């Protein structure tokens, strides 16, 4: 069995990880670290886990776990690894943005591989440390990777994407509490979102000389989980050619699926799936992409990466079904 440690155990992504791991046939939780909840039962914070797990949060670590998931705020994973040591055999999967950029950098002897299974599968399988992709970055990249592979991104890429309130984390803020978010909609970080860097790096790895502008408008939606992204760009080939490119690129993908019918968010919420749909309007190709931000955009993809790192079936513990009504 794979012994698992989780750091930052009280947040939404950690909660999703715990839910997945208690039903994973090849993994067992060794510790869940949370200084603010040390001594409390995990089900007292993640209340749906009552009856599923009797483990308590702890403020101590086991440096010999097989894999460590870091579910910390951006910038805090670096600090945690600087102040805590783990065995050389411990694999690390970081869910923050601390190690996503500058893939050649080494931190305290650890080299992090960007963990996008659809484009980095072989690298992930041999990796010791993974930088898990961001949620917006996952939805947007999966809509663009087949075009980059075919060197078809040759003009400005326009992106409009909306995320649910869980994307902002568990700590309440002015723009996340119910009375503000309900029946509301807003734009934030227009053209400057932190996920643009990792998207650009991934596209440049597949398309030589890629330097096209990515114009990204992120939105806050009045729902709790999920991301729906609409991406359009110039594409001179036919819609049939576009579908051919996407279906070929994802022919072996376990969780990314190309739909001939328009998609919607409820098809993917509570799953590790990404659904994609293509439309052609004049010389513009429109790609719509839908994921669950907490699963395919965070914890589900982290488990997918863990499975690959340990030579397991990629789908282990992730055969989840959406509730479409």
Automatic annotation (TrEMBL):
Belongs to the NAGSA dehydrogenase family. Type 1 subfamily. Pathway: Amino-acid biosynthesis; L-arginine biosynthesis; N(2)-acetyl-L-ornithine from L-glutamate: step 3/4. It is an enzyme of class 1 (oxidoreductase). Its EC number is 1.2.1.38. It comes from the Bacteria. This is N-acetyl-gamma-glutamyl-phosphate reductase. GO terms for molecular function: N-acetyl-gamma-glutamyl-phosphate reductase activity; NAD binding; NADP+ binding. The keyword Amino-acid biosynthesis applies. The keyword NADP applies. NCBIfam families: argC (TIGR01850). It is found in: Cytoplasm. Keywords: Amino-acid biosynthesis, Arginine biosynthesis, Cytoplasm, NADP, Oxidoreductase. One of its GO terms (cellular component) is cytoplasm. It catalyses: N-acetyl-L-glutamate 5-semialdehyde + phosphate + NADP(+) = N-acetyl-L-glutamyl 5-phosphate + NADPH + H(+). InterPro entries: AGPR (IPR050085), AGPR_AS (IPR023013), AGPR_dimerisation_dom (IPR058924), AGPR_type-1 (IPR000706), NAD(P)-bd_dom_sf (IPR036291), Semialdehyde_DH_NAD-bd (IPR000534). Coiled coil: none annotated. Catalyzes the NADPH-dependent reduction of N-acetyl-5-glutamyl phosphate to yield N-acetyl-L-glutamate 5-semialdehyde. The active site is at 135. GO terms for biological process: L-arginine biosynthetic process. Residues 3-127 form the Semialdehyde dehydrogenase NAD-binding domain.
